[in-house]
């Protein structure tokens, strides 16, 4: 059976396992105060060209999303998200469990449109009864989105400008950021993200780590007492160095790039090969994804046939009654597995 | 420098690291639905002699405490705890962040007294205005406690009986359970805990895992939709098998006992040697701890002298102005380190 | 200046003021345990033909909405609402402040469509990853809606059936219920509401009371410990009899009907006369409202001209750039005021 | 039957009922934006000699306590309270329902001791792990306390100084403030409270209003967006003028004093007469209360005998097995009722 269900089916990048073994009996202080975490933070600051960034290591994406939303919102504010944003659609109400409201706006291939965000904010500020309403205080975007799409630099700049204009913070969920940085045609690099966002996270879980997301606050003060908020939200790991170590390894150079970048490139290349293969065999793709997730539209027969030899994710029903399914590659996907899958078509 | 600051300074039991390496590229489903987790669950059910137990793997102790409290309390209830209970004293308000109230009662060497809990409940139920008050809905105990002490079987049975009598759930925080099971004179075993508590967790982080706590619900129905609550609280790990694997390894037999038990025995034996050494040199111990944490009362001179060669934890000021400090051993403590520490006295 | 801003500009029905004066120095027990409240409850149960209904008096609408949502939802559930539902659009995140998520669906003249709710639920239950998602646990409707429209009996039965089919509770926000009962063509009476909804409230604030909403739970058990939840949410009035008294008065017979019903009829009749007047003068109405709120589309000139002599509420921008404004009548509106307003057109 | 159960058994000061009747059909804007509220605010600012004070009208005490606590605490902070403080002991967890922790300290006749608060704060700030702990961010006191006692000016200044020294806000629950201002030997006046506290409220419900508490923020900025927080917490009244009117009436001069002060004096004088009467007949008082609540220790016989002709409140069991009961007078208590009660002894 070939598995393309998700990008978190394997363990970790072998270099992480090696480092874990090599340093296992080292003794360090807890809660991320150790030097391994500090070294990882430094590597991330450098990769982001953001020397003043504050970096925290959390365990998972939903946790990171809720903790950051809780941190960056003021009591009367909510967070704008595309209707398909993970934060509002697939996290069991984690943001609301913090007493915060998500403010859904239409999605376009999974993305928010800056002009629509602007119009929403203008309407809020023009409303003389706005004190009865949750204020838009931050904007949440995922990059890549839940549909594998990415923001262009122009799009990201436009969103950032809207946030600047209305006193909002811009927060990027980078659970799959490695695949976004390596996306076909990508023109957004880490320093752009650090410059344009107030907070974002670099996803480890889906890009080569056992678990772990590196939350980056790019503006001074925005992380005030975030350590205590992490504790309060159950997001503070005792053996913090275990998370730091993984990012330390992923942000080391190897073969002319950061391991994190290389992992992204590997997965994207295989996903694109997969997409081309599907197209060549006459299959319809739900949309044009430049990253590691590919959404294919299958009729019931094709779905059943493929499911005998491969596993993949159900996504949604297409309007015509067929099914949209997801094939995900990862840093760990073997090229042979892609070939074998394509041979099945 | 000798480090006795805490029991979470090293990585993981070497057998865990080996297993991680050996299974790294295995592909499994996510969120704890895989067979590694299922095997670990089965081992835990067997060790607890509780075949119907529902077992979930969470990442850390504060997270487990808050999630379980949130799960087992009804909307009008709070959770009784000793004033020194971790849940009310040292978790940054994680339970309150779930909208729940902790109900503090006096501590006795870190423990709750069943008679005092009973009196508290009787007063609540006798109060004709009790509907204005948070009801005692659950009792939280830590075992070992924050002072390294443990409940005897008689004490645990008494607490369980109070809970039965007043319709409350009994929840044991076992962040250091391995050291409690191995405590000097311990007469409480896992099957006792499973029989007497409604929920408890088996601490991994401090007893040989990189991270991870195995939450056990012993009564059917009490875990209803706990999976979604975990997601909502940011406590659901994508690569759940990483947590399951660690408990799978820790609950394997090795040298005539479960690895988890052996790890506990190792640490307790060294801690007891440490305590005897301190006593032999004329030092005062704050209380009689039968587990891996030892609380020594030091005057400023002794503290400064020791601190040159060893690190340990500040605990609290003693009434006479001296300082109570904590020395913690763990599964990873080297016997030589204990000898070297004692030689410094 | 003529005031049509809202239906809560005056004090209370004169009979309420008289009763307050007449009973002012009576001594009663607190928190709604008095006989005045009990008499009001009994009147409401009779008007609803629901002898087993549990009735609670709360102070205001947002408070009632949040308290009921918090009460009727289980921890993993959220509440479906039209995007324009007050609960999600205009209550400053009160439901989310209880840790609950609102689940917005499209609005049709302010109403939910039962078929769309059904499709939403079917999709949820068909989703194999639904445990990662907030479950639809209740449906919120306002009647009349924020646009003055009402559900027909057929529509309400359809929504109730969807709720039955998917184990959801149906909750009606009746902040303006008196105007809904008296709506032009209304075929939904209190006994229908009590039969088809699991919880609803009879709005006092906007229909003749100084303040107060009577929350009715129609199914046994659904109000379990709601008294304590009210206390916890700051919604329990010490002098509860003040609220009970108002509903006692409003649900007394006077002139062949309940005062509450008569108040509704008065306002609706005047609003309809207003609507006819606007139409007769060539004004566009935004939609056909059968209740006490009328939404008129004005260009800037007309708006400015009218605003010199009358006050009304801004509602929203129409797609063509004109403005939708609201004129509200109430139990207290003088017929002469309507005539004077129409004379201004 | 003579009723001394509580100070909220009657309606409102007759002048309030008169004003309600006289202004009933006036039309005003909603949510406290009207001129009646503004006039009441101005009267309160003057009585407090605090021209810059921000004043908001809420409906009840628990609501006011939770809303203010939520407003004045930062995310990592909790609120210190005596163990008997209403906020932690008798409000069903309303503060915790906002995600906030109450930090209980010992009570002394219902009061906090400034030196103990200082010691608590010193210990917090000396703790190098304090970021794992809820920070003391505010201090809650009730004045009068739940035992009818009051803070002296010296005591209040000391508490205020501790708050200044540790960057905490001081919040006074004045649910019975009128009785505190009129307490025997009282040396704390409204301007002192405004000067020494950051926030407090002037209780209406128990001192002559039908309902209503006037929350006063004395320092600029502390009420930032409090209007929206009120809405979010269900504490914003649509017909706000109903609350403003009551304070407008209570803070008018009548017979050489504010009505609010006169109401307090009336109740305290009668309560003192009651206390003297009890003492003269050989009854034990639980403590020396200078306000309108008197706590008498009764054996079962005396309690049963009195209960035939008078109602009063159960308070707590005395250590010797007798019962502490409460007799409360109010602005509405008739002197004859006191005489009749004393005649029963």
TrEMBL record, chains A, B, C, D:
GO terms for biological process: amino acid metabolic process. InterPro entries: ArAA_b-elim_lyase/Thr_aldolase, PyrdxlP-dep_Trfase, PyrdxlP-dep_Trfase_major, PyrdxlP-dep_Trfase_small. It is an enzyme of class 4 (lyase). Belongs to the threonine aldolase family. Its cofactor is pyridoxal 5'-phosphate. Residues 5-296 form the Aromatic amino acid beta-eliminating lyase/threonine aldolase domain. Keywords: Lyase, Pyridoxal phosphate. The keyword 4Fe-4S does not apply. One of its GO terms (molecular function) is threonine aldolase activity. Its EC number is 4.1.2.5. This is L-threonine aldolase.
